[in-house]
User: What shape does this take?
Amino acid sequence: MRAALGERFFSDWCRRAPYSAFHPQFLDEVERCAGWPSPADYDRLAQQVPQLFDSAAELEPAPLPHFVAQQREALRLAGGYEQYVARRRAVPTREQSWHDFFNMAVWAHFPRTRWALNALHVDADLGPVDSRNGRTPEQNVAAQFDESGIVVASSSAELLADLRELRFKRVFWERRAELLATTRFWIIGHGTLESLLAPHLGLASKGVLLQLERAPTPESDERLRCALDQRLAAVVRGWRGGAPALDPVPLLGIPGYADNAFAEFYDNARYFRFRRR
Assistant: This one.
């Protein structure tokens, strides 16, 4: 499916979940693209997403990297992909790649989090690495979150507790109205965003669950995104104290992510696990 998706650029995904949570200016610009934007166009697309400034909340605009065409020799000389990003403040990007396109989209919406993940990836002071992939446990978690992460932000402590305990039918169906009123889902994993172009049962994310002081509203969503970016970056920096276990979130159970507006959808025990493995 990935090869087929890569043959042409299309934008009919823009107005459905989860992509509809992207900033409207970003989506408008994407829909204006007649064909695949080049890596050189990605700076312009990313800059469509406002970075809010709030001195009272100590929230300042976060710098965006530049997006440049990927060159293998340049990556080798830099010591690897993450090292290149850290040293050049630039993201190597492949032509006509949905994976890299959504990487840019996540950078545009959560730059503080992405810089924090990058800093963790290149931190030479972390402990011994796994001989199979050259990463420390903390870097393994960062890689998981980078590719398949989701942040679940809710003013309902009970719903977050139910998610941690894998009570998925209770969260997504029995308490559906409360979930819609109190909770926001933001996908951080660009690999997951690519996969959701052609979703299939079984898709799941690695979640960071965050408590909100008050229920979000459509009017506050942009400010919430920027505040979550700041909180997530702090969470990622805290992973240096030990690799956490991220919470599984079955994506197609989220209202609006699939045709899931009936109770029986949540009875599939092969997808909605009822105990931790």
Observations:
- The mean pLDDT is 92.
- The two ends are 29 Å apart (CA to CA).
- The longest strand covers residues 204-211.
- The first helix runs from residue 2 to 5.
